[in-house]
């Protein structure tokens, strides 16, 4: 989990003595993905969970001996991050320039964390930010994450976690349940209906009977393998009017949901819920608001960040031995120096401005505001928890705090401006 | 790595007796990503490597006992895939409907592989397909993959592998080197230059001297932290005219590359190469063809599939006990039955058509053609290797076999049509 250049920089730094300089690296996004009005910080918990395991074992050092000198290898063999980390609590909203994470320590120990930190934040934040838009589009209707198959098998687990963090109710991914306690959901695919095919043709009733037999009438039956109306009738025939739910995975979902609702009601299955899935994104979810849909299953668009598969956060050196530093090239300017942030709001709780200021120098008159920078690691030890449920609540209250334009799905500017104050 | 519904289907199938029916599941993409003219099959090697480890240990079974019955748990405890797998060799091109993988076995053993198979193929194929377009855009100039930080930390390793497969020369990712033998590359980031800042300001010369001191004049110096012209002069001053390369990571890359080339030549560093990086995709690479660029570093666009982060492959049941089956819903039609494929070409080697036919029934008169379906697994044992270098050569010859329109970067139809023959 380390890019080669981190270790070559380390080697050169150990050799010329800058390795022990005190540095601060800052993680931030120069801008939100095009048209997005807010982002959701995610990955903090996974980073804190991973940090203590970020070591270089004997086998790794052996392989690295190909291009590293003995001093560097000795440093890595003993490596353990012993610095401090501050950052936004997981689940906070963020905006352009928000210092979502600040890593303080020797240059040597900070520089080797770059890839790990960015991989986790760029992935998890991209998913959580897209997921939050879907949650707000769905209003109070529950969302189920089912995109594992559309992304890398390990990324899928982190994606399920990020979706839950952002307000999804459940995930198809069992490893996310085992590892992070994300409720798992899922009953059957079209293959289960089709495997009941006989020589003389399909036998959907047999498939439904088998599923009800195994899991009771409260199960969810997938009714669109052949014909939705017939599927709904077969489903109620198999499970009776206490059938838990039907799922429709293809076709014109709004039209089919209405037809299914009418048919279910006629058959007395008035409490049976309707789950829709199949190429849903935040816009499709919003478009189904007026339809009798009880739950949404979301796959591809969730795990690919709905058009923004990476958050484009960067990990930049901003301070060396107390001296603010910054790169001077075009279009990549960032303010030097260690920073903290707070968020101003009206008395109603609606947020108005993100204020990023030199560490320890908050603006004098803030009015109602909330400190965003919190201690996460001190002297290499975790001082903050990775409570996923608390992070989930933070996303929910963050969405409530947005001005109403901030929740619009259409492309627009960030919901609040970011003010960088001078030292 | 399993979605919950695979195990609920398994439980219901074991209970009603369909678990032992002989099935074939097929992996294919209904269409290429919008505008793409070909895809590159990737993931086969990773699947074959992972398959023998796909087991359910005691701890997993204990957790699954929450929703599974004892018979299902007993089945999983003994699980080992014992069926057959056929498929396209890794690195082959594919087109809409190409049966890139066919999994044959009992319903029980095939259905539980869905998420694993699709996660690997959808991720790796998306990356390799984007990478191949970049390779063809770069003509013979080498490409370095440096996108680890823009994607999930484990996906990054698979992305580096997929990029190498598609023709990239190297990757920043050390784990990809350790695990797959992908050559690793990388020297320094802007942080290394900036950490040499003194009280009175930046000290780029000190940073360059430190790097040359550690790695010799053949290293690559990053010259755009402050000013590219000064950076180039400082670089040659530090390393002498045998400096290996300079890297420019921001700004108007074409203009800066020309300025750097002129300056390097004036300073006698005529053999020093120029590496450019920073938001490159296949279009930006092509746009730099006329500029004095020697190597490209590609990050974000590579690991996000350059606009198509997932290949949208599906895993569909196509045959049950010899009976072809298919789903009948709108827009998702696929041909039932076990299939194989061959690719027709002209005598020049230029390909003309993909022919997908019922297994064992190839078209009578094929003309020049090549069989695409090959045995990968028999009775649960691997019968094909996972040779990454061979797969890489397959991509190269695949690109050579495309009709010229197939290599155009602009959106268009698939380079060759797919013909599905009837039984």
UniProtKB/TrEMBL annotation, chains A, B:
<dbReference type="GO" id="GO:0016757">
    <property type="term" value="F:glycosyltransferase activity"/>
</dbReference>
<dbReference type="InterPro" id="IPR036068">
    <property type="entry name" value="Nicotinate_pribotase-like_C"/>
</dbReference>
<feature type="domain" description="Nicotinate/nicotinamide phosphoribosyltransferase">
    <location>
        <begin position="144"/>
        <end position="329"/>
    </location>
</feature>
<protein>
    <recommendedName>
        <fullName>Nicotinate phosphoribosyltransferase</fullName>
        <ecNumber>6.3.4.21</ecNumber>
    </recommendedName>
</protein>
<comment type="function">
    <text>Catalyzes the first step in the biosynthesis of NAD from nicotinic acid, the ATP-dependent synthesis of beta-nicotinate D-ribonucleotide from nicotinate and 5-phospho-D-ribose 1-phosphate.</text>
</comment>
<keyword id="KW-0597">Phosphoprotein</keyword>
<dbReference type="InterPro" id="IPR041525">
    <property type="entry name" value="N/Namide_PRibTrfase"/>
</dbReference>
<feature type="domain" description="Nicotinate phosphoribosyltransferase N-terminal">
    <location>
        <begin position="2"/>
        <end position="122"/>
    </location>
</feature>
<dbReference type="Pfam" id="PF04095">
    <property type="entry name" value="NAPRTase"/>
</dbReference>
<dbReference type="InterPro" id="IPR007229">
    <property type="entry name" value="Nic_PRibTrfase-Fam"/>
</dbReference>
<keyword id="KW-0436">Ligase</keyword>
<comment type="pathway">
    <text>Cofactor biosynthesis; NAD(+) biosynthesis; nicotinate D-ribonucleotide from nicotinate: step 1/1.</text>
</comment>
<keyword id="KW-0328">Glycosyltransferase</keyword>
<dbReference type="GO" id="GO:0034355">
    <property type="term" value="P:NAD+ biosynthetic process via the salvage pathway"/>
</dbReference>
<dbReference type="GO" id="GO:0005829">
    <property type="term" value="C:cytosol"/>
</dbReference>
<comment type="similarity">
    <text>Belongs to the NAPRTase family.</text>
</comment>
<keyword id="KW-0662">Pyridine nucleotide biosynthesis</keyword>
<dbReference type="GO" id="GO:0004516">
    <property type="term" value="F:nicotinate phosphoribosyltransferase activity"/>
</dbReference>
<feature type="compositionally biased region" description="Basic and acidic residues">
    <location>
        <begin position="331"/>
        <end position="343"/>
    </location>
</feature>
<feature type="region of interest" description="Disordered">
    <location>
        <begin position="327"/>
        <end position="350"/>
    </location>
</feature>
<dbReference type="InterPro" id="IPR006405">
    <property type="entry name" value="Nic_PRibTrfase_pncB"/>
</dbReference>
<dbReference type="InterPro" id="IPR040727">
    <property type="entry name" value="NAPRTase_N"/>
</dbReference>
<keyword id="KW-0808">Transferase</keyword>
<dbReference type="Pfam" id="PF17767">
    <property type="entry name" value="NAPRTase_N"/>
</dbReference>
<dbReference type="InterPro" id="IPR013785">
    <property type="entry name" value="Aldolase_TIM"/>
</dbReference>
């Amino acid at each position: 989990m380390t890019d080669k250049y981190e270790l070559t920089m380390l080697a050169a730094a150990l050799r010329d003595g800058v390795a022990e300089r005190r540095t601060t690296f800052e993680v931030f996004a120069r801008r939100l993905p095009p048209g997005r009005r807010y982002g959701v910080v995610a990955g903090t918990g996974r980073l804190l969970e991973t940090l203590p395991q970020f070591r270089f074992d004997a086998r790794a050092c052996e392989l690295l001996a190909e291009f590293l000198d003995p001093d560097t290898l000795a440093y890595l063999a003993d490596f353990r991050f012993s610095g401090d980390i501050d950052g936004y609590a997981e689940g906070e909203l963020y905006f352009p320039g928000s210092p979502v994470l600040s890593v303080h320590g020797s240059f040597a120990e900070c520089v080797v964390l770059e890839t790990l930190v960015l991989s986790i934040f760029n992935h998890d934040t991209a998913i959580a930010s897209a997921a939050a838009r879907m949650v707000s589009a769905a209003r109070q209707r529950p969302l189920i994450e089912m995109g594992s198959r559309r992304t890398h098998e390990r990324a899928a687990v982190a994606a399920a976690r990020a979706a839950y963090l952002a307000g999804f109710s459940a995930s198809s991914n069992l490893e996310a349940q085992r590892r992070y306690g994300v409720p798992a959901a899922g009953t059957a695919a079209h293959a289960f209906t089709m495997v009941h095919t006989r020589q003389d043709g399909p036998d959907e009733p047999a498939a439904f009977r088998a599923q009800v037999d195994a899991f009771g009438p409260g199960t969810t039956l997938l009714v669109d393998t052949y014909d939705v109306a017939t599927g709904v009738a077969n489903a109620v025939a198999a499970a009776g009017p206490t059938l838990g739910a039907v799922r429709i995975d293809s076709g014109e979902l709004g039209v089919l949901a209405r037809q299914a609702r009418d048919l279910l009601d006629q058959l007395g299955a008035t409490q049976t819920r309707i789950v829709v899935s199949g190429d849903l994104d935040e816009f499709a979810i919003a478009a189904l608001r007026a339809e009798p849909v009880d739950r949404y299953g979301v796959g591809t668009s969730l795990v690919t960040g709905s058009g923004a598969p990476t958050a484009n956060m960067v990990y930049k050196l901003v301070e060396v031995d107390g001296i603010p530093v910054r790169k001077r090239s075009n279009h990549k300017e960032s303010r030097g120096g260690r920073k903290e942030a707070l968020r101003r709001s009206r008395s109603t709780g609606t947020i108005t401005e993100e204020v990023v200021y030199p560490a320890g120098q908050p603006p004098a008159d803030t009015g109602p505001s909330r400190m965003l920078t919190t201690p996460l690691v001190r002297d290499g030890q975790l001082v903050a928890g990775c409570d996923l449920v608390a992070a989930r609540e933070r996303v929910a209250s963050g969405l409530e705090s947005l001005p109403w334009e901030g929740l619009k799905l259409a492309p627009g500017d960030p919901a609040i401006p970011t003010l960088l104050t001078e030292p």
